[in-house]
Every structure is written in structure tokens, then in C-alpha cells.
Amino acid sequence: MAARAAAAPDQYRRHLTRLLSSQQHDLLTQRALLATVDRVYSESLAQIDALLPAFDAADAAVAQGQHALTPQLLAPFAGWNKGLLQAALAFNASSCALSNFAHDQAPDAETQRAITLDLAAAWREFAIELNARLLQAQSMACSA
Question: What is the DSSP letter of 27?
């Protein structure tokens, strides 16, 4: 998961390029960032799904609805949204391709806040889904 997170700035640039080439110019930064995090989170969940059968999750602790492995699996993403946004803004500021899109080349504080809220919402969905999959695997292990 850490490797996927590290590769995300390159994915962001690819998403941004695809949006530019397809003439989809509205909310370029926001849409490219959300596509990037969606892909990273989806791939991470798929990787976890592939690894779950190897875990003996039947005896793992669950406290207040949170599986014991959830914090450990989320740890590689600590601060990741903020770092990804900073990398995207740095890239945008120096991008010739965005020179005609001032709102994306240098997003104002309101736009950055909206992007931050969207990234936080995507993070919450990922964390909830990750935990749900771990709890489901534990439930299946206990009933087997």
C-alpha cells in the first residue's frame, strides 16, 4: 500500500493529462485528485481482499466496531491526502499545460478547502470499507 501511495503523484499527472486531452476542463485538479485516490484506495482494497484468506482473523480483537488490524493497515496512509494535494499543487504551479487554467494552476483557498473535504470523504469511505471487509472476514472465519 505504501508503494501505491508513493506512486500517486505520477497517477495524478496521468489523470490530469487525460482530462485535459479529453477537453474536460471543469474542476481539473479536484477531479484528477479524486480519480487518483479512488484508484489507490480500490487497488489497496483489492490487495487486502487477496491477503485476507491467509490471515487467521478469528481471534482478532474488535473494539467499538473497529477490527484490530484496521489502524495498522491505514497507517501507511497517514498524512497521505495532504502530501498528495501538495504534490499536485506544486506540479500545477509549474505546468505549462495549465497556464490557460489559472483556477487550476493556482487554486484559491476555497477550492483547496473543497478538494481537502472531498479527499477526506474518500478517505473515510476507504477506512470504513477496509474495516468492514476485515470484520466480514473475521465473521466468516468464526462461522467456518
Answer: T
Give the pLDDT confidence of 68-89 residue by residue, as tens digits: 889 999 998 889 999 999 999 9
Residues 6+ apart with CB under 8 A from 127: 70, 74
What does the angle CA 97 – CA 102 – CA 104 come to, to the nearest 5 degrees?
75
Report the alpha-carbon distance of residue 3 to residue 7 in Å, rounded.
Answer: 6
CA angle 80, 86, 90 (to 5 degrees): 145
Nearest partner of 30 among 94, 81, 99, 96, judged by Cα: 81
Query: What single string gives the DSSP state of each residue in 102-120?
Result: HHHHS--HHHHHHHHHHHH
Instruction: Please give, one letter per residue, the 3-state secondary structure of 62-89.
Output: EECCEECCHHHHHHHHCCHHHHHHHHHH
| Integer Rg of the chain from CA | 18
CA 49 – CA 25 distance, rounded (Å): 35
How far apart (Å, rounded) are the C-alpha atoms in residues 50 and 99? Answer: 43
Tens digits of per-residue pLDDT, 86-102? 999 999 999 998 888 88
